[in-house]
Specification:
With about 550 residues, the chain is mostly beta strands. Helices cover about 5% and strands about 35% of the residues. Residues about 10-20, about 100-125, about 235-250 and about 545-558 have low confidence and may be disordered. It has a 23-stranded parallel β-sheet that branches.
Length: about 550
């Protein structure tokens, strides 16, 4: 190579390294801006989101700042990948869609009494903002559904490395936030009011997702008390059928590392959905539902909920793992009375760890309404207070048998003369390899032998306390446990042991479960005397504040 060629190559290489690199730029849109004369700068902002999003290059980490005021959107807008949207705060920056979707006029009519919301070919708008990209932050924006005439504020077909922070969606027709597929997505510090849809044929959630890895939903306020549908929902609908229940039960869904924590989820008592062929049937309005989930690893913890958690699939996956812990499930009615139609967890899946929760009232704390045995379920250190049940059903009710069921160190307080505590509907399925240890079974009234027959309660039954209930198993303690039973029902001190309780030091050690006990042996029940109660409900809550009449939620102040 000639010397001159070498110099030319070195010169060209140096020029390439000095080429300007695109820098992240701040753009602005304002209600006082101008799309014709504006250039997106702070001095000359655009006037509309449509103009701004069309002008900003994708995937360069640019940020569009939305000033205070109301921004009208005439059709669904695609927010290009890599563009951040930041408002002045959800109470100052409002986005509305003018192309409405009216469920009453565009619903497909059928046998169901309210119709199924489907995409009408004449309606071009399905969501206000549409996402299909990665590396984005959406913050400080309010969305107005205009009296449920708009389907949804946010639809994410695919999202990766996305954060939704401090948004407010209210009065949308179907849901308030919809993630179809994604990876590493966070929804936090946001508020949802009156967004979900439900009828006898189907139901939706205010916050809804489908297939995702690494999803974090935390410090949000979800209030669907004025609707008949759900708070947070995983459902396996295909994109092509996203407004229809068609194929919902047939589509396999795989989710990994789902984290739902520190949320306040307030829903109604009874949902609109019912059992086909049973027009008088009813189901609770679930706070959280995982629907037709084939594979999932999820943690649901430190939430305040006022209705149940439903996790059901018709096909089980080998890698399913759920941990539900440190939640308050307050099933009192708004006027403070008990006997609300609700149950804490219903599931037919395997590999559950349900621990350190407080469940107040309701019908069935734990249940399985469909065929399919539960395997490897660990239920420990929970307080179950005043589940109402029915004479023909049970406190813990299972549609089929269970294997490897471990029910240990729980405090069960029955205030009513109802059915049995444990029951398996399909008697031939039975129960195998189960363990019942270190529990307190307390009844306010003499009940007799109501723990459950051998199809539901067998295996190792050892060292449980029975009060007003006939004892069962090895080394039973038959005595009044002397629970405190004073003070607010939503504080664990109400259920603590008194100093002279016979449950103190009366348990047996279970490695990995009763470690760290105070005395010579573990105490019976969920709470160890002399130790602070375990944390329940939201911790250092950073989301929107929550107030309602009747039973008032009191979050821990930051």
């Amino acid at each position: 190579m000639r010397k001159s060629d070498t110099c030319s190559i070195l010169l060209l290489t140096g020029m390439l390294f000095r080429l300007p690199v695109a820098q992240a730029t701040d753009y602005f849109v304002s209600v006082s801006g101008n799309d014709q004369t504006g250039n997106g700068s702070n001095r000359k902002p655009y006037a509309t989101l449509a103009k701004a999003l069309a002008a900003i290059p994708a995937d360069q980490n640019h940020t569009l700042y939305l000033g205070p005021g109301v921004f009208s959107v005439k059709k669904q807008l695609l927010v290009p990948s890599g563009i951040n949207l930041v408002g002045a705060g959800y109470d100052q920056t409002q986005v509305r869609c003018e192309n409405y979707f009216d469920i009453q006029t565009t619903a497909k009519k059928g046998a169901d009494w309210q119709g199924v919301p489907v995409v009408d070919p004449q309606v071009t708008q399905t969501a206000t903002l549409f996402f299909n990209g990665k590396n984005q932050r959406i913050q400080g924006i309010g969305f107005d559904g205009m009296g449920k005439k708009t389907v949804a504020p946010i639809l994410i077909i695919y999202g990766e490395n996305m954060v939704f922070d401090g948004i407010y969606a209210h009065d949308f027709g179907v849901c308030g936030w919809w993630l179809h597929e994604g990876k590493n997505v966070t929804l936090r510090h946001s508020k949802f009011k009156n967004n979900s849809f439900g009828n006898f044929n189907q139901d939706y959630g205010a916050v809804q997702f489908h297939r995702v890895d690494d999803l974090f939903i935390h410090d949000n306020l979800i209030d669907e008390s004025d609707t008949h549908s759900y708070g947070i929902k995983m459902a396996s609908k295909d994109q092509e059928n996203m407004w229809s229940k068609k194929d919902q039960w047939q589509t396999k869904t795989v989710n990994n590392n789902i984290n739902i924590y520190n949320n306040v989820i307030n829903v109604g008592e009874v949902g609109s959905w019912g059992v086909p062929g049973q027009p008088d049937s009813k189901v609770p309005t679930f706070s959280i539902e995982f629907n037709s989930d084939i594979e999932c690893r999820a943690k649901i913890h430190h939430n305040w909920i006022n209705n149940g958690v439903s996790i059901v699939s018709w096909e089980k996956g080998q890698n399913t793992r759920y941990e539900i812990y440190n939640n308050i499930a307050d099933f009192r009615k708004p006027d403070g009375t008990l006997n609300k139609y609700a149950y804490f967890v219903e599931t037919n899946l395997d590999h559950f760890d349900i621990h350190h929760n407080l469940i107040i009232s309701g019908y069935y704390p734990l249940s399985n309404w469909v065929e399919g045995r539960n395997t490897d379920s660990k239920i420990h250190h929970n307080v179950f207070y005043a589940a109402f049940g029915r004479e023909d059903l049970a406190f813990f009710y299972y549609g089929a048998g269970f294997d490897g069921y471990q029910f240990q160190n729980n405090t069960v307080i029955d205030l009513y003369t109802t059915g049995k505590l444990f029951e398996v509907r399909t008697k031939k399925a039975g129960n195998s390899n189960s363990t019942f240890k270190n529990n307190i079974f307390y009844s306010a009234n003499p009940r007799g032998d109501v723990l459950g027959d051998s199809s539901a309660v067998n295996g190792v039954i050892d060292t449980n306390l029975f009060y007003n209930i006939s004892p069962r198993g090895e080394r039973p303690v038959v005595a009044n446990p002397k629970l405190t039973l004073t003070g607010p029902l939503d504080e664990l001190t109400h259920y603590a042991l008194q100093p002279d309780s016979p449950a103190i030091d009366a348990g047996i050690a279970v490695p990995g479960l009763t470690d760290g006990f105070s005395g010579v042996a573990p105490d019976l029940g969920a709470l160890e005397y002399g130790q602070p109660p375990f944390a329940i409900g939201v911790q250092q809550y950073k989301g929107p504040r929550f107030d309602r009449a009747g039973v008032v939620y009191k979050p821990v102040k930051p």
